[in-house]
Amino acid sequence: MPYAPRTTPIVASLCFLAVTGGYETFGFWWVRGPDQNPSSLRIDPTAERSRTTSLRIDPTISARTSALRVVPIEIAQKRGIQQVGEALARTEQQVITLPKRQPTLTERAAVLAAKGRYQEAIPLYQQALQANPKATEALAGWGRVLLELGREADARDKFLAVLALNPRDAAAQVNLGVACYRTGDIDRAIQAYQAALAISPRLANAHFNLGMAQSHRGELEAAIASYQTAIKLRPQFREAWNNLGLLYEALGDLERAEQAFRAALGKPVPGGREPEAGYALAHYNLGRLYEKRAAYDAAIREFQTAVRQQPNFPEAYLNLGNVRLLRSQLKGTPELDAAIEAFRKAIALRQGLYPLAYENLAIALSFKGDKPAALAAYRTAFDQYEGASADTFENLLTTLADETQFLIGNELTRSDNPGNLRPVNQTATKPGTDRLLELLERYAGLPEALKEQPDVRYCAGRAYITVGEAEAARNELRRGLELAEGRDASARELLHALEATMAPPP
């Protein structure tokens, strides 16, 4: 049955607002509208439609994230871990106090590691272990360096070696838990944190890390208790206050969430000013709460404070753009261009690798009436997601049909991100491939004239690849190449790789 565009009512305020993905607003709103490497193809026409599609991650993406260590959605999807707030579990660090005597190899390595010179520290740890294979301080220091370099499996082995020599090393248990958590082995991480606390119950970092792992498993009340214990042990533990606020938000207690975020900011200095060394992430979360309450002026102030305190904060720029876009359409404010500028700033801070910002930029460009630029932005987003985002494809269809109901949000709203926590009153969404299949049926019913754009055909081709529909993908890519008069190099490469996959074995 041909798809019929829906008639969308024009209203002046938010029509439907729901909490999704754990902590953030997810707006379904109506307003007055105005080179991937093809070797990553995974075509299996006989596959179960509900299978998940893992993303191939650019190995340099960790260097492109914000300095606040917020794990981006691309890594969260790959590893199945959450990326909210202070999402990286905290290691137990070695206290460096150089003696007056000549420092040992391990002490010299620790100094280098403290300065971020990890590669230079490793040979010194190795030399220390060659001299004494049972040097647990060298093993532990090497493990922490490996964690900083993103080599979690190797780090885990080092901490296990420490524990084999000294089973009651609480710090090694904490760091083992961190290594396991970062690889997605949540159960093993919890075991390690609990073992550390059995040895040393007053380790605030262990309680904090345990709260994160419990949150991941959906044990929100237990996680709250863990964060509260961490705060009792360390009252100024702002990261614990911040994550506690996120859990209250997930439980729908926005008043307590706001109190926790404000506690994370600490006491203001005399005169009502915040200390110079502020906590940008808490401002970011306060901004989100104000956005939920449609207090857009207050939300923008918080996001602006966040980026002033932490200029390399692409997630805050994304939300700043979201609020400006939302307000421009619902309140008629002349700030659509400012929203576009904020999205582009977020993209620049990620060195061009930020699919969600490209998607929201596409929505803003749709309202601006620049459909070709919007379609190009959707294509970039879809490419960076490797065609695996149903939300992105749904927004593209909305732009194509000249409708005005979009799904807009940030990392914490994505229904296709398995790492996001879900509020207790929200059911799970359909698997991404199931949604993509439904959306592709909707796409097939659109008038052909709406689809006659190279970028549209390319995105549809990638979507068909994701669900295992190789023949349909080939048809879309071929048509896209015809529309581009053969000048679409990435579409041509993708088509060649697809056809090679479809070819019968010799």
Automatic annotation (TrEMBL):
TPR repeats lie at residues 102-135, 136-169, 170-203, 204-237, 238-271, 280-313. One of its GO terms (molecular function) is protein O-acetylglucosaminyltransferase activity. PROSITE patterns: TPR, TPR_REGION. Gene3D superfamilies: Tetratricopeptide repeat domain (1.25.40.10). It comes from the Bacteria. GO terms for biological process: protein O-linked glycosylation. Keywords: Repeat, TPR repeat. PANTHER family: UDP-N-ACETYLGLUCOSAMINE--PEPTIDE N-ACETYLGLUCOSAMINYLTRANSFERASE 110 KDA SUBUNIT. This is Tetratricopeptide repeat protein.
